[in-house]
User: Fold this.
Amino acid sequence: MSAPADPRSASAPPPVATGMGQPGTTGPASIGQATAPEAQQGASAARQRAAIYLLAPADPEAAKAARTKLDAYRRDRGYAHVACYSEKPEHADRPVNDRPALCRLAARVRAQGFEVVIVQRYSDLGNDWRALALVVVTLAKHGVRVESARGEPPLDPTTLRQMLRDEQRRVRRNKQTLKAKRSRGEVTGGHPRFGFRVAADGVHVESDPVEQSIIGQVKQLAAQGLHATAIARRLSDAGARTRTGSRFTHKQVQRILARV
Assistant:
């Protein structure tokens, strides 16, 4: 399973109803007093196996309470218990393919270990909607669906898959647009790379004589066998300065050499 590393604060995409039931409920009004249709549904669900994925809170008591609620949700629906994959709080900001518990869950999915994954909320499965969509789509390929113990509406893997494809097309178009602008010598956003500047028309990029001179000195000193630190010191001692007016560092020199 792979996913865009990327931030935790982003929310999941708008849930999409799939006709799998009414959202907003987590079971019968009174456990053990299900109506006839609910009892029939529970008997059918009993044949299904469920794994719990818990993005554990930092507080041990809160983590225990969250696990208890997830177990109650599973029992209410008659799912057979397989395992609980508890993710440590310090792993919450990691990309989905770098979360140990989620990776163990994915390995069990590939072995067809269960049919349902229960989470507290969908956002526990990804730091942004793309990561969440990738996880849900990947699970769906193995016949596994995700359920939220908070009663969030079901997510439709087909819709999420299309959203991911649309996003990929958008990214490709943006890359092609930027490439075309660079080929025409136009500004592509941000600051032009060292040695160039925005032209007077505000659209095109032109050579910066001062910075081009510094690049020439860097190339010449490198050809003499000087290392990046020595070159940076030589430039700074000679009065050359970066765009921010500071002395050159060896990393800046390395970046210049990497582009020439």
Observations:
- The two ends are 38 Å apart (CA to CA).
- The chain has two domains: 1-183, 196-259.
- The chain has eight helices and six strands.
